[in-house]
Design a protein that fits this description.
heterodimer; A: 252 residues; alpha/beta; Rossmann fold; globular; B: alpha/beta; six-stranded mixed β-sheet
Chain lengths: 252, 235
């Protein structure tokens, strides 16, 4: 399977702290890759360095064979790498549909000249709206499409974030703890939707998550990070039986 | 005893909680509150602590009616509250954070003694006493926040999802601390989604759905509740 994201000896240091220390990692197309590790092991820093939030101190980042090392965030977002943060930050004044619509990249009606000529953008607007409702349906948010975003629970907000990534045309979605603080039923549902997007839409996911009772059911491959280094990688069976992982991460 | 009876509360005109009742004894009793996201669990703890509008009902802690006293007085009653976010001073060291937790203690020597006392309850904090709080991991931060609360020698601590975002190894540390606090007769009311770790520790559970407590009772009876199955995604 095609490698979508390839990190080659990626490094990020903060003074003397080696937060990401020569990490090499591959994310293959149509796979759900789980990144786990103790708190403070460098998982979020790795995501930040991959997606342009931080500039790396060494190593290289490739997306679909194109080197994107050190690119700014917006440029990485534009080529199809979309990430979420641990805390959702939606546009509070908009409803669910509005929050999903703003992620669409093509908005011809916003041009100063075009805005005066309705026929130049009305068809595109209709298309964008149709696409937004498809996204809403794919994530099971139909009953919430017109409610204010502020009235959604934390779990549903995570789904809206995924919806925004879909709307932006993401090929690789990087999620930082998508089910943190979410009740078990909804948490499982969120992963069901992620899996559906992988199978039906061919999307790829790199996910940081601690709730293994739920996440492991859906993971294709797992990387374990500790003190900025990958200490183990493999399928679910390999990881859950790895004595080092058991000791360092599970506390067994 | 903390006693909440017929509590109705919310934000402005929006009512979130409807006739909630809950009692928690001050002898190390542990009560776990569970429920779907958005059901009003955090609002419930906020209303006990005086952070949201209470429309009606009684909240008494010992002989004190918490509704009748300002927030800074609530802290002095022996009630602690560990919220989900912003629970440590990022720019201060861990030791300074602990001193902030004991800000109401007047004598310097007493503060030092209290820090030693807290560190014997939560020894995990000792190795990073001089580190700046912003450099702590999620698990370390939770333990520091809990230590700050212990500085005021609370009789009851309310914890809002203390294991959220923590790796299993860090969750085990938090659970160990909770067990220890229980042994020291500090009562706890804990909101938790991670039932695997918390229900065994609890004397009592409270299931809140859509702002109403649909069950309050011994944790082992919780499994008989049909609402629990829905919450767990089994129904």
């Amino acid at each position: 399977m095609e490698v979508v994201l390839y990190l080659e000896k990626l490094k990020k240091y903060f003074g003397g702290l080696k937060a990401v220390d020569s990490v090499t990692l591959k994310v293959r197309k149509k796979e759900i890759i789980l990144l786990i590790g103790p708190n403070g092991s460098g998982k979020t820093t790795l995501i930040n360095t991959t997606t342009g939030y931080y500039k790396p101190d060494g190593g290289r980042v490739f997306f679909k064979n194109e080197e994107i090392t050190g690119w700014p965030m917006h440029k990485i977002y534009n080529i199809g790498v979309v990430r979420s943060f641990q805390l959702s930050s939606p546009f509070k004044g908009l409803n669910v549909l509005g929050n999903i619509l703003v992620a669409n990249k093509e908005n011809p009606g916003e041009s100063l000249i075009n805005c005066l000529h309705r026929r130049k953008w009305i068809k595109t607007e209709e298309k964008i709206n149709k696409k937004a409702f498809e996204v809403i349906k794919a994530l099971g948010l139909q009953q919430y499409w017109d409610v204010p975003i502020t009235s959604l629970s934390a779990g549903h907000l995570k789904l809206v974030e995924i919806g925004r990534a879909l709307m932006a045309g993401a090929e690789l979605i990087i999620l930082d703890e998508p089910i943190c603080g979410v009740n078990p039923a909804l948490a499982d549902k969120i992963f069901t939707y992620i899996n559906k997007l992988k199978v039906e839409y061919g999307l790829t996911f790199l996910i940081v998550e601690h709730r293994l009772d739920i996440a492991l059911k859906y993971a294709d491959y797992i990387y374990v990070l500790n003190q900025g280094k990958i200490i183990s990688e493999g399928n679910v069976e390999h990881i859950v039986n790895d004595t080092q992982v058991k000791k360092i991460y599970m506390g067994e | 005893m903390l006693n909440v009876s017929n509590l109705n509360a919310g934000y402005g005109k929006a009512q979130v909680l409807y006739n909630i009742n809950l009692g928690c004894k001050l002898d190390g009793e542990v009560v776990t509150i569970i429920g779907p996201n958005g059901s009003g669990k955090t609002t419930f703890l906020n209303s006990i602590f005086g952070l949201v509008d209470v429309f009606s009902g009684k909240i008494t802690f010992g002989n004190i009616s918490l509704r009748d006293i300002p927030l800074h007085e609530v802290v002095k009653t022996g009630l602690g509250y560990l919220r989900q976010e912003s629970n440590v001073f990022e720019t201060l060291s861990v030791e300074e954070n602990l001193k902030m937790g004991g800000a109401s203690i007047k004598k310097k020597k007493e503060v030092e003694e209290r820090i030693d006392e807290v560190l014997s309850s939560i020894p995990f904090v000792k190795p990073f006493l001089l580190r700046r709080a912003s450099t702590l991991s999620g698990g370390e931060r939770q333990l520091v926040a809990l230590s700050m609360i212990l500085m005021s020698r609370p009789k009851l601590i309310m914890l809002d999802e203390p294991t959220a975002g923590l790796a299993p190894v860090a969750i085990k540390q938090v659970v160990k601390v909770i067990e220890r606090l229980k042994d020291e007769n500090i009562s706890l009311i804990i909101i938790e989604q991670n039932l695997k770790y918390m229900l065994d520790l609890s004397d009592k559970s409270c299931l809140i759905v859509s702002g109403r407590n649909v069950f309050t009772g011994p944790s082992d009876k919780l499994s008989e509740q049909s609402d629990l199955k829905t919450y767990l995604g089994l129904g």
